[in-house]
Amino acid sequence: MGVQVLLIEDDESIAEPLADGLRHFGLTVHHVATGAEGLAGPYGDVVLLDLGLPDMDGIDVCRGIRRSSDVPVIILSARGEEADRVLGLELGADDYLAKPFSVRELVARIRATHRRHRLPPATDPYAQQSSYEGESAGHETPYTDPADDTPPASAGPLVVDRRTRQVWVGDVPVTLTPKEFELLALLSEDAGAVYSRQEILNRVWDDHYEGPTKTLDVHVATLRRKLGHPAWIQTLRGVGFRLAVRSPAPDPPHGPTAS
Q1: Residues whose CB falls within 8 Å of the CB of residue 200, separated by 6 or more in sequence, listed in order
Q2: How far is the C-alpha of 17 from the C-alpha of 22, rounded, in Å?
Q3: Distance (Å, rounded) from C-alpha 159 to C-alpha 166?
Q4: I need a labelling partner for 94 at 20 to 30 A (CA). Which of 5, 59, 134, 198 fits?
Q5: Could you give the count of Cα atoms lying within 13 Å of 20 in the half-sphere of its Cβ?
Q6: In this structure, are residues 158 and 227 in contact, taking their beta carbons and an 8 Å threshold?
Q7: Interval 41-52: pLDDT, tens
Q8: Digit-coded pLDDT (tens) for 72-130
Q9: What is the CA radius of gyration of the chain?
């Protein structure tokens, strides 16, 4: 069965041709016209969400979906301002496409988002648990963020489990949106290495991502807040970001064991 899409769009003049276009590319489309209907589900594999709905703001719908599901959400809206894009992405949307757009581009984004979200653990080369102690080792480089020192030892190890898509700091589980998890998982692939902004956008968002780069800064800021200390993710001036690490202590704090 192809990708199942929930389209939440109140304008029939947009919804009908859009649904037909998506079906032409082999996608299954269920269309609803209100936020309440959208929140009732089922969400399918990917949600396409218009912000200008008649009964509630699409941002509230996105927030409601994210409370109960990690289904990928792509916002479709005539609101093309950077502030709207950043807000939608910060609230948990995986992508944001400003109207007008081509059906072909939307299909490419749907497939890319679905592929990243549904990658089977057996085929994921990074489907393993990684544990990091919060301190960078080796040569230090000046960073943009004044708070980028060392996470306190009391924070415990940072555990990123790609197989189960779970994250802990010490014994405390950290709840992340799909996009936040993919960003942290990328940085943990080679902890301590610097990833350029463009590489992160290409790998976490899309090879053809053309949205605001501010989106990345928002996600990094949110990750720092959720991890409990800004020093977990360090900013290299003019280059990109890296995950702060050091060699594990002989007897590291005992955290949860991921199966």
Answers
A1: 183, 186, 216, 240, 241
A2: 9
A3: 8
A4: 134
A5: 5
A6: yes
A7: 899 999 999 988
A8: 899 887 766 666 667 767 667 888 888 888 899 899 889 888 877 765 443 444 444 55
A9: 19
| Residue from 198, 228, 213 nearest 89 by CA | 213
Residue 202 tokens, joined: 């290409």
- 131 is written with which tokens? 């544990």
Encode the chain in three state secondary structure.
CCCEEEEECCCHHHHHHHHHHHHHCCCEEEEECCHHHHHHCCCECEEEEECECCCCEHHHHHHHHHHHCCCCEEEEECCCCHHHHHHHHHCCCCEEEECCCCHHHHHHHHHHHHHHHHCCHHHCCCCCEEEECCCCCCCCCCECCCCCCCCCHHHCCEEEECCCCEEEECCEECCCCHHHHHHHHHHHHCCCCCEEHHHHHHHHHCCCCCCCCHHHHHHHHHHHHHHCCHHHEEEECCCEEEECCCCCCCCCCCCCCCC
Token pair, residue 71, equals 């289904």
Token pair for residue 225?
């807040």
Instruction: Give the position of tokens 């960078």.
Output: 136
Beta-carbon contacts of 154 under 8 Å, excluding residues fewer than 6 positions away, are none
pLDDT in tens, 172-216: 888 888 888 999 999 988 888 899 988 898 888 876 655 556 778
**Quick one: 162 exposed, middle or buried, by C-beta within 10 A (0-12, 13-18, 19+)?**
buried
